[in-house]
Automatic annotation (TrEMBL):
UniProt entry keywords in alphabetical sequence: Membrane, Transmembrane, Transmembrane helix
Membrane-protein topology: Multi-pass membrane protein
GO process terms (BP): protein folding
Any GO molecular function: protein-disulfide reductase activity
UniProt KW Transmembrane helix keyword: yes
Example of a GO cellular component annotation carried by this entry: membrane
Protein's UniProt name: Disulfide bond formation protein B
UniProt biased composition (Basic and acidic residues): 1-10
Membrane-spanning intervals of the chain: 49-67, 87-105, 112-132, 174-202
Main location: membrane
Domain of life assignment: Bacteria
Length: 209
């Protein structure tokens, strides 16, 4: 018997060495590749989308109020309408966050998340309408005809009703960044939030939150 012989020999009845077959092993099981950072991120975001929608809405409302309070950018009629969308979306997100802790969530998960998607999609359409009015592609609503933007020092007087200041017109962009007004950026943000909502609604499995 040589070292290269894979067979193991044992003594037979007559004392002769008989070869013993080496057991045949099947192929080693192939392990599934570990999920990438992108896959893990998508899973976490979609699994906790009611919370993410609530936080996103609160953040965007805070940014809008910061521009108004510290930047002196008084909101026009369509600006206020777009804020209402985030108030509604935040409320739905909060209700969904509560329902996630109840047995009702598996049945209500898809309708609730699709409702969020519809709300954000409506917000994108409203923002697109506002942006189009700013670009003079179509006229804005009659309620959007206003005066010049109010100064920050006059905002408190406006809220108290002691100042006769008209809200700014909807067809004039008060702030532009990288060629897009606030309404233009809101279109992109709302579309992204709507896409996340639909993606979360059609997740294959629901992992306990």
């Amino acid at each position: 018997m040589t070292n290269d012989d894979p067979k193991v020999e044992k003594a037979g009845p007559a004392g002769e060495l008989e070869p013993q077959a080496t057991p045949v092993r099947g192929p080693a099981p192939v392990e599934a590749p570990a999920p990438s950072i992108v896959d893990r991120t998508v899973d976490v975001v979609t699994r906790h989308w009611p919370l993410m929608a609530l936080l996103s809405s609160a953040l965007l409302l805070a940014i809008a109020h910061a521009f108004e309070k510290f930047g002196g950018l008084a909101p026009c009629h369509l600006c206020l309408k777009q804020r209402e969308v985030y108030w509604v979306a935040g409320t739905v997100g909060l209700v969904g966050l509560v329902l996630q802790r109840t047995p009702l969530w598996p049945r209500l998960r898809m309708p609730a998340l699709l409702l969020l998607g519809a709300i954000f999609l409506y917000g994108a359409g409203l923002a697109a309408y506002h942006a189009g009015a700013e670009w003079k592609w179509w006229p804005g609503p009659k309620t959007c005809s206003g005066g010049d933007a109010a100064a920050a020092s006059n905002l408190e007087a406006m809220l108290k009703g002691t100042a006769d200041i008209k809200p700014p017109a909807c067809d004039k962009a008060a702030w532009v960044f990288l060629g897009l007004s606030m309404a233009g950026w809101n279109v992109l943000i709302s579309l992204k939030l709507a896409a996340w909502s639909v993606l979360a609604a059609f997740r294959k499995s629901e992992t306990p939150a």
